[in-house]
Amino acid sequence: MSRIYSNSGGYRKLHTFNFATIIHLGTISFCKRYIPWKEDPLGKTLGQMIGASRSGKQNIIEGSERAKTSSETEIKLTDVAKASLSELQGDLEDYLVQKGSIPWSIHDPDHKAVVAIMLEPFEYTDDLLHDYWIYLLKEKRKFDPWLEGRDDITAANALIILIQRTTGLLGRQLTRLESDFVAGGGIREKMFQARSEARSTPDSPTCPQCGKPMQKRTSSRGAFWGCSGYPDCRSTRPVEAGE
After folding, report:
1. Separation CA 218–CA 226 (nearest Å)
2. Is residue 3 part of a domain?
3. Beta bridge partners of 32
4. Is residue 153 part of a domain?
5. 4 is a domain residue
6. Which of 72, 131, 160, 186 could be stapled to 125 by a disulfide with Cβ–Cβ 3.0 to 4.6 Å?
7. Quick one: pLDDT at residue 194?
8. Which DSSP symbol is given to 119?
9. Three-class secondary structure of residue 222 per DSSP
10. Mean pLDDT of 130-140
11. 146 or 65, which is more confident?
């Protein structure tokens, strides 16, 4: 296990990513069927909707991969994914209103049915790409009666519900990432810590406060032992005769 790099990748196990992928595929299908580009009143609604759904999915990928060297970037990209999906939800709400409809009530039977559908976890295999897409399309079919099987109002509402579920999960993911960063720091802190520990010798005393090895340092007052965990631990002790 690396002492510097954080865990990265593994995004295919995230429900946020799998929901975002289903949303992206559903948005492409929705736009192809119900927003013909020749009839797009602004000439860009279709592209923006598909682009927003893609951004939601792709930023989860990039954030997960960049986690290795930058917790800050992972947090920022996860937040971008959440914002992109919220943007798509706004377009879908506008579509419903323009069609003389509004989003379903949370008490609507269809709303309850879509919310009740759970995703199975994905387990990595030795044939990752092939097996992942078998898994993902199987999970998407659970939602196809609403996304693909009825009309535009149903599909738009189903996408909105999926977006709400995904942004809720992304909000929780951001909270966890923040806690992990506060507890473990970023790569600069880990590099400093690893380098400090590497500079300690086998004969270095153990820090009385945190148990990490100490390093011999000097100041205007002479030599002293300082904890290698500085600045988190500021414990010091004098260098005794013979050390």
Report:
1. 9
2. no
3. none
4. yes
5. no
6. 131
7. 52
8. P
9. strand
10. 97
11. 146
Order across the sheet with 214-219: list the strands.
214-219, 222-227, 236-238
Distance CA 93, CA 55 (A): 19
- Within-domain flag for 6: no
> Rounded to an integer, what distance in angstroms lies between the CA atom of residue 201 and that of residue 68?
29
Proportion of the chain in helix, strand, coil states, percent, rounded to 5: 60, 5, 35
- 5 pLDDT more than 60: no
Q: Torsion over CA of 175, 176, 182 and 183, rounded to 10 degrees? A: 150
Q: Do 16 and 37 fall into the same domain?
A: yes
Cα maximum dimension of the chain:
87
Please check whether residue 215 is in contact with residue 226, taking contact to mean a CB–CB distance below 8 angstroms.
yes
pLDDT at residue 242 in the model? 62
d(CA 192, CA 160): 45
The answer on pLDDT for 236 being more than 70 is yes
- Residue 217 β-bridge partners: 224
Q: Are strands 222-227 and 236-238 parallel, antiparallel or unpaired?
A: antiparallel
Please provide residue 50's backbone torsions phi and psi, each rounded to the nearest 5 degrees: -65, -40
Q: What is the pLDDT of residue 234?
A: 84
What DSSP designation does 240 have? P
Distances (CA, A) of 117 to 18, 31, 114, 139, 141: 13, 24, 6, 10, 11
Distance CA 10, CA 66 (A): 12
Q: Is the pLDDT of residue 8 over 60?
A: no
